[in-house]
Amino acid sequence: MEVQNIPLLTQYKMGEFDLSHRYRDTPGIRTREQVEACKPIVDAVHEKGSIFFLQLWHVGRAITNGFLPNGQTPISSTARGISPGVDGQEWAPPRRPTKDEIPGVVNDFRIAARNAIEAGFDGVELHGANGYLIEQFLKDQENRCRFALEIVEAVANEIGSNRVGIRLSPYAKLYEAIDSDPDALGLYMANALNKFDIRYLHVIEPRVYGTVVLQGPEDEVPHKLLPMRKAFKNTFIAAGGYDRRKGNLAISKNYADLIAYGRSFLANPDLVRRFEIDAPLNKYNRSTFYIPDPVVGYTDYPFLEEAN
């Protein structure tokens, strides 16, 4: 796929690499072969003037029966599994890791971050949202923030804090990862992360519930993330339910430093250009999300000049 020529710092691309191999055909960043395979992709993005961060995630208990080899059991913050039928799946029952295992998981993130930098990525985003392992620990209470913060510290020490961001969704309920006081959780994490001086904090709006976005009035600026935004001293990124106009409005009101776009960017490889001239957007096709087809779904959306 061609990467459009967009000025430095105006386009932000995110790769998503799984440390736990939850989904089939997801890439990894564990081996020498994987590091080398990433390099031409990163080079192509850099040649077009873009910054390229790699998202690192571990799914924890969000894994289906029979997927792990040799009958292995997934780990989570507790032995409580995801209810059968959630997302139409039958989920493998997890186990709580031992204290001796936790440093190994933290180290997996550290090594993956080091490999990402070797592959040429500009930094990494730690996926602490959407019901995956880090968020499973974050919710609900029980001093679980320690796990996330240990990962942040290890990765920041390995590659430098200016190359590290984290994505959080304290209000989300994906995979039954729910917190009884998301306001307090979000604020605690925003303050705690300041200790490590990481590059950015990326937070999902509470109006996003799985694939559903609860939209408010067109002239409304969200407010739930404002305490986190004020507490966190570096770049704050808001995500979830934004279009061009709402994104500009949030920035103009100093609600966030940056707005993240996911589905719109996937369907519009030249989204920045389209926003610049207020051009119409391609509509995304959710049925092709996360499929392994090398042609359909990720690289077949037309650029603006091709659509005319």
UniProtKB/TrEMBL annotation:
Keywords of this entry: Flavoprotein, FMN, NADP
Cofactor: FMN
InterPro entries in the record: Aldolase_TIM, OxRdtase_FMN_N, Oye-like
A Pfam family hit: Oxidored_FMN
Protein name per Swiss-Prot or TrEMBL: NADH:flavin oxidoreductase/NADH oxidase N-terminal domain-containing protein
Keyword match Transmembrane: no
GO MF annotation terms: FMN binding; oxidoreductase activity
Domain NADH:flavin oxidoreductase/NADH oxidase N-terminal: 20-280
Region (Disordered): 78-99
Homology family: Belongs to the NADH:flavin oxidoreductase/NADH oxidase family.
